[in-house]
């Protein structure tokens, strides 16, 4: 058991080192944060979608924006399309499970909004349809996925590819990147105005 624990930690450590040295990937993270910040500053919103563990990540990240991450500040417009059981079951029953997110995007999405679609495989049919619906609505499309995901890449403005084929490790990195993006959004939009530590540091310079 101890060997298994160490092995999993070592795999994640090696993956994080690879990510840390990937300037292209880190640049994509910066660009995603910038796109989201710009949309929110213009009064737009961010929609999240995913299945299973990625549904949990969608809800987690939407909550970080609506509530708070590092410090008190005004709430930000974010919606997880995974939370309304009545809508999900109605759409799944009346249409098909593949439409549970696209139908919500068609109903709630507006030009300039952002869709962050999370899929470790990059092949989930309901995620692919959601991205297509977002493109039709002139939304910015962002994908969180694994090492190879051509179907998502074709439908996204920006794709964050975690360089792994292991679902748990991809998910662990997705939530890390999500937290970083939320932190960058908070900092860009509010900065010293709502961050006492940063304000104090700036005043002492």
Q: Please, could you describe this protein's structure?
A:
With 205 residues, the chain is α/β, with parallel strands linked by helices. It is 57% helix and 11% strand. The chain contains 9 helices and 5 strands, in the order ααβαβααβαβαβαα.
Compact description:
With 205 residues, the chain is α/β, with parallel strands linked by helices. The protein has 9 helices and 5 strands. It has helices at residues 2-20, 23-41, 53-66, 85-94, 102-108, 125-136, 150-153, 167-189, 196-203; strands spanning 46-50, 78-80, 114-118, 140-145, 158-161.
Oligomer: single chain
Physical arrangement of strands within the biggest beta sheet = 2-1-3-4-5
What is the number of beta strands? 5
The CATH architecture comes to 3-Layer(aba) Sandwich
CATH class: Alpha Beta
